[in-house]
Design brief:
By secondary structure, the protein is of the alpha/beta class. It has helices spanning about 10-30, 50-60, 60-75, 105-115, 155-160, 175-190, 220, and strands spanning about 80, 85-90, 105, 120-125, 135, 145-150, 170, 195-200, 215, 235. The chain has seven helices and ten strands.
Length: about 250
């Protein structure tokens, strides 16, 4: 658990809570996919540290650790058993698609997610409370809603974890909200030792020389196919357990 202590203490309790939630949440999403993570807690993959142990390992106040666990529980990534502790949910997003067409609060991110799901994701309104709400993992999830965590996953997450200090992530996306999510994920995993650059449209691969990692959102990739000089760019997938044939 010592690995959770790095890069979680920062600008205030709210920032520490977000980075701790992201660091734990990204690990939980990766293990739910069956991918290995270099900083996985030793021992059981299901039982998580107590609030006190997590706060000590991460160097944060107990209230911050408890709040991070509450956020992850609202995301459906963990569940608490009174007197037994906090446990990881093995398949956190296995059935959310049966609850109707999803919604998102950000129009640009809704477009990115629509491209991934291959079906419309509309912008949420007051009447959408029963529809699953797609929420970036760096936001505190609202209470009383069925929320689905949105975060880098699969090969993109694995590549983000393996970055070396001093490297730069090049993100191809015209969504500012997606840029913030990737930036917060980088901060949670590496602090300020890894940078982020972003462009709105794909460029030829030679411009990526010297870049530690190139990511592209599916809205940018899908109209262009895969043979337009985008070698080295990893498609940025965001939703685990999504059913592309649903709806």
């Amino acid at each position: 658990m010592d690995s959770y202590g790095s890069n979680t203490v920062g600008n205030g309790r709210r920032g520490a809570r977000r980075r701790l939630r992201l660091r734990l949440g990204l690990w939980l999403l990766a293990t739910a996919e069956g991918r290995s993570c270099d900083d996985a807690p030793r021992g059981s993959r299901r039982r998580l540290p107590s609030v006190r142990a997590l706060a000590t390992a991460a160097g944060v106040h107990r209230n911050t650790a408890a709040a991070a666990y509450r956020d992850l529980q609202r995301f459906g990534l963990v569940h608490s058993v009174r007197g037994a502790g906090t446990f990881a949910v093995e398949s956190p997003a296995r059935s959310w698609t049966q609850f109707g067409a999803p919604v998102c609060s950000d129009p640009g991110l809704a477009g990115v997610l629509s491209a991934e799901l291959r079906r419309p994701v509309s912008v949420t309104t007051a009447g959408d409370r029963r529809r699953p709400l797609l929420v970036p993992l760096d936001e505190s999830p609202p209470a009383g809603r069925r929320v689905v965590p949105v975060a880098p996953r699969g090969p993109a997450l694995l590549a983000l974890r393996r970055l070396s200090p001093g490297s730069t992530v090049h993100l191809v996306s015209d969504s500012p909200r997606l840029g913030r999510l990737v930036r917060h994920a980088i901060l949670a995993l590496h602090g300020e030792s890894v940078g982020l650059a972003r462009t709105q449209r794909a460029r030829p691969a030679p411009e990526l020389s010297g870049v530690g990692l190139g990511l592209i959102d599916l809205r940018q990739l899908s109209p262009r196919g895969t043979d337009v000089g985008l070698e080295g760019l990893i498609p940025l997938m965001l939703l685990i357990g999504s059913d592309r044939n649903a709806g």
